[in-house]
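Hey L., structure's done. Input below.
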Amino acid sequence: MDKSQAKTRIEKLKTEINKYRYAYHVLDKSLISDAALDSLKKELFDLEQQFPEFITPDSPTQRIGGEPLKQFKKVRHEAPMLSFNDAFSEQDMKDWIKRNENYLKTTDYRLQTADFYCELKIDGLAIELVYENGVFVQGSTRGDGQTGEDITQNLKTVDAIPLKILEPDEVAKNLKSLGLKPNTYNLKPDHLVIRGEVFLTKKEFNRINKENEKRGEKIFANPRNMAAGSVRQLNPKITSSRKLDSFQYAIATNIGQTRHLEEHLLLKAFGFKTNPNNKPANSLKEVFNFRNYWEKHREKLNYEIDGVVIIANNNKTFKALGVVGKAPRGIIAYKFSPREATTIIEGIKIQIGRTGTLTPVAILKPVNVGGITITHATLHNLDQIKRLGLKIGDTIIVSRAGDVIPQITQVLKEFRTGKEKEFHMPKICPFDGSKVIQDGVAYRCSNPNCGARNRESLRHFVSKSAFNIEGMGPKIIDRFLDEGLISDAADIFDLKKGDIATLERFGEKSAENIIKEITSRKKVSLPRFIYGLGIIHVGEETARALAKQIINNQQQITKITAVLKYFQNLSLETLQEIPDIGPQVSKSIYNWFHDQKNIGFLKKLENTGIEIEKPVILSGAKNLKFKNKTFVLTGTMKSMPRDQAKEKIRELGGEISESVSKQTDYVIAGAQPGSKYEKAKKLGVKILNETEFLKLLGK
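Output:
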């Protein structure tokens, strides 16, 4: 076969293969068997390998990209890809209409009577497709709505997404059959932006999970998470193996459309796969019927849906309504009733919020609701517990309203055995022992600083110098406190992925990352552990001194309770004999380890699986030129971070102190030194600037 013949054959093969794809995905017709289609694809592949100069981006062989990517590029959307506000009842929908009519100051747009378009809300991942001169050139995720990730290679593996739109004459023919006038629209746009969704069918989801289980790999909780993970694979061959599907539902480019219904018909005419179950509605009653029908019949679909999307069909109306927050006013997600499951209340704990408010949180026997394992649910306040008639030990119904936040909706009292226990709000704050006062329906700690102190103690516990739990920043801690997931540091290690994934703006991936990081910190060095406890007057250096004392006297401590026992056996006098520990510090340490609340906390912490790393000798350097020398550092150093300077001193056998005394040998003063500098001058302690310190180190 010569070049001319090969080119002709390749073009014919491309045309016919795309025709069969269009028939199968858009028209729901099989014009040829899968085996025969595979044979044609193989012939095309072989010819393109023989004549690579004829390979084009729209060829069916280009659906699977080449080498894996190192990372995804960022893509700025031409127009924002906005999220939707939610409705959960007919009244919510009526309120939506009323808000929109009030906003427009008119009923001329006839929102309530004749102008809706209804779509199934696919439980998948939103995407944007860009076509230049009819050829697919870029695909991206929604991301934050303004900027997404370039996943073009992966989307090319999805057969339902055309690599090239149909020719204008074929589009015109299709439009006529759909009842539209072709000359009304631009049928050959130079630039076309399409919005859609990628998803996995239930069958494909189950197939992949079964294969992963056999290989001992990750099991996904639901199809959406698997679809999201699939399109974000750096290797497009992995994406291809998962057989993603896709529906397109909007045209972001103006090609003459005036109604959302037209966009669906135009998409179909251009060769895109659209959802055949979507339809217009002429009244709210028809909207309700559409939603209620699919809530009852969604199991018949081969993909997951979690509600319906209702859109102002008239594009002029949609544009006039504008945007509120991050959601268009002219569109709303009308969710199905919350998915529910039954479980048992194993206990109720009290969480102290940032403002000192006491919030009861139900500890649940783990239960899967809508693909997420739930172990906690907020009870809000005592009045809510009374309204539910809830007792510890009750069998309850837990729901995820809108498939997001867990809520206890009902107590199944008929399951009671008589062993259930009433819950009573504590009279004493479990955090600081202050009196609890009632303020309306809320109960608060009478100490106005209580909530802030609890927050600060948690921030200290996860800090870099203590347990070093990355990703648990102040905002995350505050959120977990407010949601009732944690009340003390031990609760952090009892968190489950489902507890976090149900929170808005988190999701399964971020939840998985946080849990992975927390789990990796269940082994901690003794100095970090002691410092993380947040004992008053015990800083990093004092924590190291205490750790060194333990190691020198009892090498094999790896259990938290052993640390507790060690300190409980120390007298105030013995504590004061430890270098860098005076009367005030020793009293603080002694009191902390004899406080019943702290003893309970340490035992709770050990029960979560925390272990102390096998101790090592803290000062084991051969060159001990600083042996028996005590250093204090103050100010900012230019040549190295202060922590690095401390380590260099320790490597040479020196000790670090946090306070200046007559026993201090050197004060190292960097830029802008603090009060330690003045105290050193007053006591006559030798002060070294940074240059002198480096010279002392031998640099």
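The chain has 27 helices and 26 strands. The chain has a mean pLDDT of 85.

-- N.
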